[in-house]
Amino acid sequence: MQTIASPRETLATPEQLARRAGRVLRYNDMGDWTRAAPNLYPHQWSWDSAFIAIGLAHLDTRRAAKELLALFSHQWTTGKIPHIVFNQEAPPESYFPGAEHWACASTSPDAPPAPPYTSCLCQPPVHAIAALRIFEVAQRNRGEDTRAAQAFLQEAYPSLLRWHRYLSTYRDPEGSGLVTIYHPWESGTDNSPRWDTVLAAVEVGDLPPYPRYDLQHVANRSQRPTDADYDRYLWLVKLIKKASCDERSIYRYHPFLVKDVLFSAILVAANEALLEIARLVGAQEEERALITDWIERGRRGLAARWDPEVGLCLDHDLRSGRPLRVRTVAGFSLLIAGGQSPEQVDALMATLDSPAFLGHPWLRWSLPPSTSPLQEGFHRSSYWRGPTWPVVNWLLWWSLLRAGKPMWAERLRQASLQQIASSGFGEYFDPYTGERLGATDQSWTAAVALDWLANGPRRVERKVA
Ligand code: 2M8
Question: pTM of the full predicted structure?
Answer without folding.
Answer: 0.97
